[in-house]
Model the fold of this input.
Amino acid sequence: MSDLPEHMLIVTARVDPSVESEWNHWYDAVHLPEILDCPGFLDARRYVTAFDGQREYVTVYRLASPTALDGEIFNARRGWYQFAAHVTATVRAFTALKMETGS
Done:
């Protein structure tokens, strides 16, 4: 399981269908490359729900450490900009639990 991230940022978002196509283009072409250029952000992968109805998007960012979230560059680039009124999102950072071994 060493290929799983030690530290990650998970962003979930519901997007107003009226701007969904434009938002996806902006996210892939502008936002994601800008965030991945921030110190401590190693890579990312986007997902979308696999059922009918309003879609929910998830982006999982692999971080070098939780301190990546404190970076000045990251904090200047985060946000939904022109889409803010059309996006409902949650943002959470996670660190892997250390597995206890039996005695």
